[in-house]
Recover the amino acids of this structure.
């Protein structure tokens, strides 16, 4: 009887190990597909020729950004292809942002400062501020392209030039680009990367590449850089599904794509930076409002919950099970524990290989690969809690001092 049981266990472990390796092969293919199809903006290639007399207006929503605005604006003014206008919308700041903006406006002739009117019902704060800035930039009539960016970003002097050359080469109407993250706490890095793993499991590791497919509704967005053709921005952001979306950046890109415009996603970590969160708690609070919208939109809450649990089983459980199998060696001996060791060891090695590949693409530090299993488990627990609370109607989110239900 014991022999049958051991033979069954060995068979199960062998099949499970093969399934893990097959799943790893699929994910590896998806990562390579994203790496091959998603363009990368950097300064290593020769500067491409200028694509005609293109004019760019920059729109920046700013709420309590006194510490970040000056370096952000300096990086924009220093562009090789200088913006024709920079519109900064003060979104009811409570710090020194208004005073700083008015001082900078005296020094920078292209800077225009707007105060956001009181937010109408049904609008998310950042989206309303962006709408005010986009409307003003379009009314000015001096821009062929709009760059929507955040106040805590830094832009390499060649970024706009290279981005416009890329949209001309690809024939797209919107380009959004992933920045590098600077000044981020280690705990915040773990939270950000673990959330990224969960979303990759839900959407597929090649999700950035599928953004370009006009036959798919999916869109990936980074609010730090959305370069949008002025003709595709007519009417501003006053559309159902955009003005009230908590996941504001992605909602905008999806709306532009749904209107028939071509969109693309690029990696720009060498030319674009954004300030990271200082702590794991701050990172979770910062990402929670995007996650609530994204998980619910994509699959429905219960399917999202299943995907999160499956993510934990796939990405974190193997390391726990491997530790248990190693501990069992002392009790059962090598021969009895060997099938479990081979199964969970191969699974953990495959997951670590995937993590290393993804970390390289996302400019994550090498230590993340080893620290990820417990971090992912914690974040997945937080995601389960978030989804359940949302399902029970306890979905109020506080962001930038405002409450959204």
């Amino acid at each position: 009887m014991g022999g049958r049981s051991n033979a069954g266990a060995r068979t199960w472990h062998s099949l499970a190990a093969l399934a893990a390796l097959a799943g790893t092969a699929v994910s590896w293919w998806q990562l390579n597909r994203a790496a091959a199809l998603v363009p990368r903006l950097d300064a290593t290639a020769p500067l491409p020729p200028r694509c005609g007399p293109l004019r760019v207006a920059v729109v920046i929503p700013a709420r309590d950004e006194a510490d970040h605005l000056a370096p952000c604006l300096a990086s924009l003014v220093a562009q090789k292809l200088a913006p024709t206008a920079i519109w900064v919308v003060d979104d009811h700041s409570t710090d020194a942002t208004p005073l700083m903006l008015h001082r900078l406006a005296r020094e920078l002739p292209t800077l225009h400062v707007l105060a956001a009117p009181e937010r109408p019902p049904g609008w998310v704060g950042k989206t309303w501020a962006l709408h005010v800035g986009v409307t003003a930039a379009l009314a000015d009539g001096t821009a062929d392209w709009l760059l929507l960016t955040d106040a805590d970003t830094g832009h390499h002097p060649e970024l706009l030039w290279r981005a416009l050359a890329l949209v001309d080469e690809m024939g797209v109407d919107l380009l959004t680009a992933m920045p590098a993250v600077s000044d981020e706490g280690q705990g915040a890095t773990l939270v950000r990367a673990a959330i990224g793993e969960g979303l990759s499991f839900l959407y597929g590791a090649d999700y950035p590449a599928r953004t370009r497919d006009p036959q798919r509704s999916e869109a990936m967005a980074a609010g730090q850089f959305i370069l949008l053709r002025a003709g595709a921005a007519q009417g501003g952001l006053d559309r159902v599904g955009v003005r009230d979306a908590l996941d504001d950046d992605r909602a905008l890109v999806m709306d532009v794509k749904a209107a028939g415009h071509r969109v693309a996603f690029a990696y720009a970590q060498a030319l674009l930076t954004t300030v990271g969160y200082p702590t794991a708690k701050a990172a979770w609070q910062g990402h929670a409002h995007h996650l609530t919208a994204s998980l619910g939109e994509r699959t429905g809450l219960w399917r999202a919950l299943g995907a999160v649990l499956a993510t934990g089983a796939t990405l974190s459980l193997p390391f726990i099970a491997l530790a248990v199998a190693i501990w069992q060696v002392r009790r059962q001996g090598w021969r009895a524990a060997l099938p479990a060791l081979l199964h969970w060891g191969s699974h953990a090695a495959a997951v670590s290989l995937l993590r290393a590949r993804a970390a390289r693409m996302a400019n994550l530090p090498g230590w993340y690969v080893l620290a990820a299993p417990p971090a992912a488990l914690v974040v997945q627990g937080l995601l389960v809690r978030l989804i359940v609370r949302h399902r029970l109607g306890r979905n109020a989110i506080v962001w930038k001092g405002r409450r959204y239900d």
